[in-house]
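Posting this for the archive.
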Amino acid sequence: MILDKSVDVYARVSAILNKASPLADLLLRLWVAEVFWRAGMVKIQSMYSTMYMFQHVYHVPLLPPDVAAYMATGIELGFPILLALGLFTRFAAGFLFVYNIIAVISFPALWSTGFTDHKVWGLMLLTTLLHGPGILSFDAAIRLWWRRTRSGAKLA
């Protein structure tokens, strides 16, 4: 009796949580997208400071500092948009995941102060990369449209 009730309660709670999952997917994407977007906005608002940082502080492997500065700015402004919209989400999350690792490697001074933030962002990006964007995304809408189009074509 008690076991049956416990299983029933567990099933109901699980059903509620499953319905909330798409919202959690969206919030996760928006949260991490905002972090990178803000970093890109800081870079673009003071390009002189950005250039200085890439020339004298950050040590991006294999790239000249000016190229790295412009690429970082573009990445931090473009990929968060894709992530927030849920468009090419796994690609965007994977790219930002690697970019996050490069950022940590390029700025060793960060290891003692801000490394925890980068670990959290990395886990958020990895979760999105592995789990996908959820149904509240353009990827899901495109996938649904594609399936309907393909099934309609087969019936005709």
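The chain has a mean pLDDT of 92. The chain has seven helices and no strands.
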